[in-house]
Write a structure and sequence with these properties.
By secondary structure, this protein is mostly helical. It has six helices and three strands; from the N terminus they run H-H-E-H-H-E-E-H-H.
Length: about 140
């Protein structure tokens, strides 16, 4: 096998840049940013489509003010609702609305289609091998 023209990092950076460019383009058609889409995804997979604001802060690794601003923008779009917890008013709960869930599903479908295009030249076995290798690389770096 010929020696690659560059190391793994070069290819990973180029793939990441291409995926991010496509994702941002797709999300623009839905009037979403990448961070907003991620917030919708976190909520979509949470029990009752609801998380405390603090949990979102931890998932994003961001300050309370940053996440509160993100939630506020999603609330203005009607994609989430934020309110105090019935059990403890100091805790702010963020809940995905039906419209937010619908938009998350559309964004997720675009991701699935992008990944299908990205791996179209690979056999199903090669796709599985690639995913397994990427998992191992990720685990080694954690």
């Amino acid at each position: 096998m010929d020696k690659p023209i560059a190391g793994y990092g070069w290819f990973i950076r180029r793939i990441d840049a291409a995926l991010e460019k496509e994702a941002n383009s797709n999300l623009q058609t839905l009037n979403l940013t990448m961070q907003q889409s991620r917030a919708l995804a976190y909520l979509a997979h949470a029990e009752g489509h609801t998380l405390p604001l603090k949990a979102l802060e931890e998932r994003f690794g961001a300050a309370q003010s940053t996440v509160a601003g993100l939630v506020s923008r999603l609330e203005k779009k009607g994609l989430v609702e934020a309110q105090g917890s019935p059990a403890d008013k100091r805790i702010k709960l963020v809940r995905l609305t039906e419209e937010g869930l619908h938009l998350h599903r559309r964004a997720h479908q675009q991701i699935v289609e992008s990944e299908a295009r990205m791996t179209a030249l690979l056999t199903p076995q090669e796709q599985e091998t690639l995913l397994n290798c990427l998992r191992k690389v990720y685990e080694a770096l954690r």
